[in-house]
Design goal:
This protein is an all-alpha fold. It is built from 4 helices and no strands. It has helices at residues 9-13, 21-40, 42-65, 68-81. It is elongated.
Length: 108
């Protein structure tokens, strides 16, 4: 196309893949903390794992079975934790135009 530069083969070859370093770092530190607590005292580590599991189950249960507002908030929290963007706003509701009524009666 005129006015557009031709695609370069060099730029296609050197595409970098972004690894999830942030998630990997946060995950390893969270797991490392639990492992350290378990190593120091197994009951403390077990209590932490149980609390994390209960919080995860409550969040998923709220997202699936809560009211519309609470469910929306839980899904937003899950998207935020997964570092995903907010979806676009839904389209505004279109109300149908009122139908004109005939002035003639059915029996006329």
């Amino acid at each position: 196309m005129p006015g557009r530069p031709a695609p370069s083969a060099k730029s296609a070859r050197y595409i970098t893949i972004r690894l999830p370093w942030r998630a990997l770092g946060l995950g390893s530190s969270a797991i490392g903390g639990v492992v350290t607590a378990y190593y120091l005292h197994p009951l403390v580590g077990l209590a932490i794992v149980i609390c994390e599991t209960v919080v995860a189950m409550i969040t998923v249960g709220t997202a699936l079975f809560g009211s519309a507002t609470t469910s929306d908030r839980a899904f937003r929290l899950l998207r935020w934790l997964a570092n995903r963007p907010e979806p676009g706003a839904p389209p505004t509701e279109i109300t149908p135009a009122p139908r004109p009524t005939s002035r003639l009666g059915h029996g006329d």
